[in-house]
Amino acid sequence: MDHSAWKPKANPWLIAATVALAAFMEVLDTSIANVALPHIAGDLGASQDQGTWVLTSYLVANAIVLPAGAWASSVIGRRNFFLSCIAIFTVSSFLCGIAPSLPILLLSRVLQGTGGGGLQPMAQAIMADSFDEKRRGQAFALYGLVAVLAPSIGPTLGGWITDNYSWRWIFYINIPVGILAFLLVTRLVEDPPWIAPSRKNLRNLDYVGLGFLTLAMGGMQIFLDKGQEKDWFGSDFIRVFAACFALGMIGLIWWEFKVKNPIMNLRLFRYKNFAICCLLMLLVGGVLNAATVLQPQFMQSLLGYTATIAGEALTGGGIALIIVMPLAGAAVGRFAARNLVMIGFAFFAFSFYYSSTHVTPNMSFWDNTILRIMQVLPIPFAFISITNAAYVGLPREASNQVSGIINFVRNVGGSILIALTGAGVVQRSAFHASRLQNFMQPNSPGYAAQLSASTSFFQGVVNSKADAGAMAQANIYNQLNQQAAVLAYQDIYRVLCWVSVCLVLFGLLLSKNRPGQGAPKGEAVH
Question: What are the distances in angstroms from CA 366 to CA 298, 304, 309?
């Protein structure tokens, strides 16, 4: 049956705003707890190391549920599944807020991640089906704003709430938003005719695939989360979870191509355009998440900014996104996705090169604001274009699977590059510190002059010349470590620049489809 003429009864933009509200709530929650971890750990009698499981437990559950949305929709319908996810997320947010101990909080976070895992892909799939191809890019601009802006303001909002109220309120604020989203979805959202849920599909769940997916994602997240702390492959603990990740991924790929009703329809990768979009989104998710973590980390650790001030410095980037997102959405309907993707990645490369040359210990507040604006300007063109291009040439019945996989790879890319760039900063800082220490020799004229000047300064503070000399050496050593860290951040930004250059080249592989039209013939690779 031809369903191409179907249109939702409600205004598509009301539908888009409604599902975007639910997605915003979920995306925000992935980052809002970051700055509150010391408060959570201290309040619940846990160590800082144990507190990080508040993040990990959520991410693991979230990643496992992301690809399962298509199956759940086939059982109870997409609208009902979306409503169930909102309800689970809202109730579990309340449970997180009242948790009396760390184990209860972790169980609540797993439940919250389970509910949140279905919100992003279902919101995206609902948007894709509510708009025709010519206007779909504008709708994805709204979704892109949610996906990028929420992680940017999450740490700042979480820090402000924690400082002024309590860490428990970072979970309580989800409750009114969840209730509003639930009521709006009930009134506005409907399933298209090609979604025909049946309870018979309940027994068709790919349990083996789900098991491999759980093994892979659990292993990956623990491997990435604890790798730097445990010295990576120097630890048996890390090697075990790295093996879990590798075996889980190999088993998942093997099984999903073999089973009749896979939890992740990897056969979609036979469509060249979709496969390339997934690769690009994997790297885009990594690049933009890494950039979102690196700059506030730099401002707080090296410039002495509080979480609130760092967030204010990032505000300019949020304003720029609000302005540019609609323009990028309109551009998707006028220009080929391939061209916009390449332009976006070229801007990424330039912005990261600029970052590598302008990150210094003497940066002002406005320097950081300008840096953030430059880093976010390319996001709409790359993000919206790839999201839109991923659906091109695929049957509308596959939209649930497409949205699940494209969000899955974006989250995986973010987890990988956040961990790798964080480890890179630590390792490169140690490397540069070791090199700079070679100049701290008694026979070095520069070091001798600096030590003498510092000693004279501290003699005005303390009476003992020995104490003044020790304080001078400690001061120089602190300056050395700060300079080493700055050089490390510059190195990481240069790496991200080269990654972005590679993405420009990958963009050439996308099909030359015309905006608002289907993919060229021969898109599927059999």
Answer: 15, 15, 12
Rounded CA separation 118/88 (Å): 10
Helix (H, G, I), strand (E, B) or coil at 271: strand
pTM: 0.77
Residue 195's pLDDT is what? Answer: 78
Tokens at 126, concatenated: 């609902």
Structure tokens at 466: 């020995």
CA dihedral 215, 218, 220, 222 (to 10 degrees): -140
Q: Where are the domains of the chain?
A: 12-197, 207-260, 270-526
- Which CATH topology does 12-197 take? Growth Hormone; Chain: A; (1.20.1250)
pLDDT by residue (tens digit) across 417-441?
877 888 888 889 989 988 877 766 6
Query: Phi and psi (nearest 5°) for 178?
Result: -65, -40
Secondary structure class of 526 (helix, strand, coil): coil
Task: Name the nearest CA neighbour of 135 among 28, 15, 44, 41.
Answer: 15
The structure tokens listed for 79 are 């609208």
The answer to whether residues 210 and 68 touch, using CB atoms and an 8 Å cutoff, is: yes
Q: Is the pLDDT of residue 525 over 70?
A: no
Distance of CA 55 to the CA centre of its chain: 13
Cα–Cα separations (whole angstroms), residue 466 to 128, 450, 462: 71, 16, 9
Helix 379-390 crosses helix 272-302 at what angle (to 10 degrees)?
A: 150
**Identical topology for domains 12-197 and 270-526:** yes
199: nearest Cα among 74, 75, 77, 82: 75
Burial annotation 177-216 (CB, 10 A radius, 16+ → b, else e): bbebbbebbeebbbbbeebebeeebeeebbebbbebbbbb
DSSP one-letter string for 218-249: HHHHHHHHHTTTTTGGGSHHHHHHHHHHHHHH
- CB of 100 within 8 A of CB of 144? no
pLDDT for the residue numbered 465: 66
DSSP 234: G
Residues paired with 524 in a beta bridge: 271
Q: Residues for the chain: how many in total? A: 526
CB atoms within 10 A of CB 438: 8
Distance CA 343, CA 13 (A): 28
Q: Return the closest-CA partner of residue 506 out of 299, 310, 272.
A: 272
Distance CA 162, CA 142 (A): 29
> What is the model's pLDDT at position 446?
65
The confidence score (pLDDT) of residue 523 equals 45
Helix/strand/coil for 195 = coil
Those residues with Cβ within 8 angstroms of residue 257's Cβ, 6 or more apart along the chain or in another chain: 266, 267
CATH no. of 270-526: 1.20.1250.20
Rounded CA-CA distance 306/482 in Å is 17
Determine the residue type at 487: L
CB 119 within 8 A of CB 73: no
Bridge partners of 271, per DSSP, are 524
